[in-house]
What we know:
Number of helices of chain B: 11
Oligomer: heterodimer
Structural class of chain A: mainly alpha
Distance between the termini of chain B: 10 Å
Largest interface: A-B, 37 and 61 residues
Helix content of chain A: 40-55%
Order of helices and strands of chain B: HHHHHHHHHHH
Helix content of chain B: 55-70%
Number of helices of chain A: 7
Structural class of chain B: mainly alpha
Amino acid sequence: MNCRQAQKWMDAACDEPLTGARAAALDAHLAACPACAQQWRLLRMAEAALRLPQPVAAPEGMLAEFRRRVAAEAAQQDARPARPRPFWMWPAASFGAAAALGALVLSTGLYPGGARLATAPPIVPPAPRAPEPFAAAPGPMLTPALGSGREAPPARTPLRAARRPRARRRQRPSGRRNPAPRSPPPAVSTGSSPSRSGRPP
Amino acid sequence: MRLGQAVQAVAPTPELLPRGGARAADAARRGETDGDLILSFRAGNEDAFDRLFQRYQDYVYNVCLGILANPDDARDCTQEAFLRVYRKVREFRGDAAFSTWLYRVTVNVCVAQLRRRPRHAAASLEDETVREIADDGPEAWKGPARSAEEARVRAVVAELPEDYRKLLVLRYFQDLSYEEMVEVLGYNLSQLKVKLHRARRAFAKRWEAGGHGGLELG
Lengths: 201, 218
């Protein structure tokens, strides 16, 4: 056994007693090596010293002090006012308000061309529309297409607004892939169904 | 002396076990486990936490005193450890024993305190007058001489790095098993053994350098 291995076994012997051949080998090495024997003596001494301190009782009144601290902490939490909004949230709030205002302006048509961009979120109220000749009985067949120059009716959601023209195209008879733009409806509506009102008798 | 005899000579005696152990044993005789008390506390019974406090205050205080080597700091950290546990005990899932969790919290509080005041004086535990009595000879070993020697041990431990301190305190002052230390400290077993060997050797070197080489028990 060399000194390095002896040191490992000394450490192991501090964890739990060595037995059998290991203990005999270490004993033999310690008998022959004064340096390792001195280390072993020092380690044993350290172990003995470390086991000396006896536990002490906690000071009196610890529980009462603990109760006081708990009560003080609870009182502090109760008395704490509502936290004001942090300063860094003010710009964010202003930006949000400006964005909402902008969406409102676009959706109400106050901004030229705003109807084409009307993909505002559903929180925006529908814009009041000017009365149109066929407005008495509007139907899906007469709803003007987006981009036709006429203001589109307010859609409930942008998704629905985008899908509606495609759905209408599917309803057209085959063979008319690119129909001419629909002429404006006659000035006088019969008040009947919109499909009949838009065609000549 | 054979190795087995040498190690047995430094084995802990029953009277060195923490006094809190007696309180815990009393509570166990009454049939109140930690789990019972925690459940009772969660149900709104504040007295249940008081009983937990009384059961473990000596353990916690001794861990704090061992690591911090200062009675005032130990008192403060004991309070802080229990406050943290009080705030979190409703979320305690019981994956580990309550005592293990409490030790872990206590060690963390002590380490945080050490980092706030890294070189806090440990001299309050050491009394020069008593040290002189200890030098009178083997007859003076009991009583104040022993107290002085204990104070020196604590002082030397307090000079060690925090990592070594907590290992030595849990292992020797609190007499935790390796398995308990693994749970408290989060090391694996081989890491723990290596660190403990280093801590023990560091202590031995300082102990000898401080002129305490004459101590021989058993």
